[in-house]
Amino acid sequence: xxxxxxxxxxxxxxxxxxxxxxxxxxxxxxxxxxxxxxxxxxxxxxxxxxxxxxxxxxxxxxxxxxxxxxxxxxxxxxxxxxxxxxxxxxxxxxxxxxxxxxxxxxxxxxxxxxxxxxxxxxxxxxxxxxxxxxxxxxxxxxxxxxxxxxxxxxxxxxxxxxxxxxxxxxxxxxxxxxxxxxxxxxxxxxxxxxxxxxxxxxxxxxxxxxxxxxxxxxxxxxxxxxxxxxxxxxxxxxxxxxxxxxxxxxxxxxxxxxxxxxxxxxxxxxxxxxxxxxxxxxxxxxxxxxxxxxxxxxxxxxxxxxxxxxxxxxxxxxxxxxxxxxxxxxxxxxxxxxxxxxxxxxxxxxxxxxxxxxxxxxxxxxxxxxxxxxxxxxxxxxxxxxxxxxxxxxxxxxxxxxxxxxxxxxxxxxxxxxxxxxxxxxxxxxxxxxxxxxxxxxxxxxxxxxxxxxxxxxxxxxxxxxxxxxxxxxxxxxxxxxxxxxxx
Length: 488
Prior knowledge:
This protein is elongated. The chain folds into two domains: 38-343, Alpha Horseshoe (Serine Threonine Protein Phosphatase 5, Tetratricopeptide repeat); 362-479, Immunoglobulin-like (Sandwich), CATH 2.60.40. The longest helix is centred in the middle third of the chain and has 29 residues, at 155-183. The two termini are 49 Å apart. The protein is 30% helix and 12% strand. Helix 2 runs antiparallel to helix 5 (120-141) and helix 7 (155-183) packs antiparallel against helix 8 (205-219). With 488 residues, it is of the alpha+beta class.
């Protein structure tokens, strides 16, 4: 888990100026030894990988020194400014999943959902995205075949740089996807645009989505095979995953349904050998390079990538109050982020035996149905449980709990008594306006009704759970009981 570092490196762009010069040769070099031009940087073949590491580090660190110092972007406290910290806030704080206790600047706008163009955190996210895109563009400008030939690069170096370029394009596509997801219609610039002051074209959501898709497909052949690259660097599976995310939201971005494409690329990732790691918490430990299921990590460690963002922020800021910092392997908590009570209330508290899950009607709302009024619910057809016919073929099925032995009921075709059916002979054959039907003993019954042949069946059922979460494990099921007061 180590990123290569770059010290005292300055990326400069060639800007065409019209001016009167006293020098015949304007191809001068800086006098300041700390200012290094691209011409000097790439004299060292190792620099191509070193500069690539800066592109990856752009997702993690805040500037040229860790954990703070010589920041990449301005306009916000450097500790707040890192890409991943801003991305997490923009994704989580507007939801019920997270809330932040601090009142830094306009941070509470996220939770209150009343942000505008003056919010410095949104500006920082935007600036991070385009700083990253700019770095990738410049790297691509400096690694063309023509540039490599002019520097005398051999075939082996050219092959290495070809893969580096594919990774740089992946990182640029990732940031453009973030721009698409957050801002939709945005400025669009690539390495083919000249460096300097100009107004870039604005791409709409469909144009940008199409560009991201075409880029990821174009670079697929140049990326390493899944799980064969250095840890922390992009491979084919990373590109497939980003394509799947793009397709998942394509209907929102472009109005085009791409769910089948999303499924296909998810399957490619699964088929590449990725599995869910058995211990979720281990995915966030310092040695998570040994965990399965990580497709594309943003790397941090205590020496090479120090920052006030990333996992430092997520781990420290989530610890506060009566929580012991030592339980989380840290020296102190910041008491900043936590989940909301609305989310907590959706789950059972520790020590509570059960939780009621109340599903919506979903598609069943459109199914044909009949009603089952009876003594169990006060003989009210309008408020009775119903049986449904998903196929619309006049056969109905459903489950009903009867709280007492010999509980009487009937079937009605609507939420009234106009067309009701019972069983005069208790023989499983329905008779219009017939006698009450009875469930023989208390319990949960599966009921099937065929209104074409006027027949019905009652089958008492027992429900249980089996698995690691139960007392008997996989060797013995644990019976479930019906709670009439909660209806579950």
